[in-house]
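Section 5.1 Outputs to date
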Amino acid sequence: MQVITTVQEMLDTRASWTVSHTAGLVPTMGYLHAGHLTLVREARKENTILIVSIFVNPTQFGPHEDLTRYPRDLPRDLHMLEKCGVDVVFAPLPADIYPADFSTYVEPGGRLATVAEGASRPSHFRGVATVVLKLFQIVSPQQAYFGQKDAQQVAIISRMVADFHLPIHLRVLPTIREANGLAMSSRNAYLTSAAREASTVLYKALLAGQEAFISRSTTGPTDVIRAMKELIVSEPEALLDYVEICDPSTFMPLETLQAPALLLIAVFIGKTRLIDNVLLRADGSWDMGMPPS
């Protein structure tokens, strides 16, 4: 497994691959968990060359967010990725991705970038879109792999790929959950045992939303939102940020209960902010996530 720490070396390495190679990229911020590894294993099956990026992107963190304390353990991550058969790990320094004279950013627009996460973290998607476009340009993958847990991020990157005619196929895999239903996230490392127990309220709220969605007594989206909020309020350690039900591609609010639909939630458990969602596909099937393999 090759570990690359500079943009130029990554560009040179990518240029050495022949046109017969198919390159798959799994972008991460490190401190890997089973959700990341599910993406890695799927990408390993589908590509002749597999690249995993590890980069804690400073531009997607707000001024009072957790950039400095975000969990990091590169030796641990490299050990896990080598066992998965990764070919290249791209782990650049911030100064190489954002040199002193860097001044061009991708600014997602419209409702997609200004509701839910976009409203709670106003500069977040500017940083996400910019770094993902940079990774796509540097690595030039044919396929890139993301998790459904970050549904709004996926929608924005999908829009960016379409808007810029990028020759990249996005693969979105189901959320990987712990045994208690908690969506796997690097930030779960912040949770105490008591907070981890309290955090199960996110998944319980999504289940309540799903039940309200399919209930014959439910009259519309407001009933689904109410059912989810009631679950959150029942947990003393939880502070609700937002609950929404929307179209998964545009993030326009639903006027009627019909597929496709995305139920979104963001909650503070103590000082730790967690997000989750469930997806109702156009065919009427629910994507609730799955346990780790």
